[in-house]
Amino acid sequence: MKIFIVNNHQILIDGLLSLFFRMKNFKVIGSTTTLNKALEQENFFSTDILLVDEYENVENIKQIKKRKKSLKIISLSICNDLKKVKTLFQVGIDGFMEVKGGFPQLLEAMKKVELGEFYMCECLKNKLVDSFTHPNQPVENLKIYEKIETLTKREFEVMESICKGLKSKEISDLLFISTNTVETHRRNIFHKLDVNNSISLVKLALENKLVEY
């Protein structure tokens, strides 16, 4: 697995380089302190996973995912501000963790995103739960994040498209997959989020701010 590291703390880069050097299945093909510098390197888009800090321009991240959708991006952060995290996921990151989580947690995150899943560190999950705990919020919604995390990246994209009112053929054309695959994802989404139809899905997504309408 090819890795590229972008972080404005050189000491963190050096630490990761040392740790990955001992791993047989990982190869760091580049590292810089800014994403702009990384984009100037010829081998940048040959990477499989990009480890980037949260201070990077979200527009750069959006453009990277637009050019190479298969490139997995994990944001390494010193904080877990929900508004910031939401923005990062909206522009295309696949995982988020705090740097204090340690190297084993990073390996776990990389394994998950490689399989097409989202990754959120426990501290972020807890903060997400806390954001739900107010008097007007139904108790059942406290565990919604657990259901959300079971969605694959592709299922989340299909869910977003359904919530935008797109039909199966339109989703098929948008995501370059067959209509049968769209329907399979639709059934899986309904099952994982415990809804019976598209109307219930849209209602759940909007109530929990999973998508913007």
TrEMBL record:
- What's the domain of life for this entry? Bacteria
Report the SUPFAM superfamilies cross-referenced here.
C-terminal effector domain of the bipartite response regulators, CheY-like
UniProt keywords (A-Z) are: DNA-binding, Phosphoprotein
Q: Does the keyword Phosphoprotein apply?
A: yes
Gene Ontology biological-process annotations: phosphorelay signal transduction system; regulation of DNA-templated transcription
4-aspartylphosphate: which positions carry it? D48
Give start and end of each Response regulatory domain.
Answer: 2-114
In its keyword annotation, does this UniProt entry include Phosphoprotein? Answer: yes
List the PANTHER family: TWO-COMPONENT RESPONSE REGULATOR (PTHR43214)
Stated name of the protein? Two component transcriptional regulator, LuxR family
